[in-house]
Amino acid sequence: MPTKTEQSTQNPPKIRLDKWLWASRFYRTRTLAKQAIEAGRVHFGGHRVKVSKEVAVGDELTIRQGSVTNYTQKTVKVLALSEVRGNATVASTLYTETDESIAQRAYFNEQKKLANLARPDHKPNKKQRRQLDKLKQQDQVY
Known about the structure:
Oligomer: single chain
Order of helices and strands: HEHHEEEEEHEHH
Distance between the termini: 91 Å
Mean pLDDT: 88
Low-confidence stretches: none
Number of strands: 7
Radius of gyration: 24 Å
Strand content: 15-25%
Number of helices: 6
Structural class: alpha+beta
């Protein structure tokens, strides 16, 4: 009969993916975590997964959060498992984000800021709108 330490090396502890995402505070509820997994926003090994997928320590997940036009993508490595949702400091010890993921998010945030610099600071007032309409009409005539 195998001893307890041999059993733990043979069958490492695992937990359902939706529970782990909820406990690590990626999503507010398990239902939201389940919906995100089913929508294909959570990948394991580059592939979509099912809600019942069991994660273990050392697994790498890619998680996409936010709206369709404004989302962030994180690649995290599972450091610990928990079935209980704790405070944010405890939740942050359950995973670590990869360096490539951090660099990629910083790059995309910088690109968003640069794109916003091209926007005008304010909406045109009524007089300016009339002038713009007049310019557009002149361009259409020629």
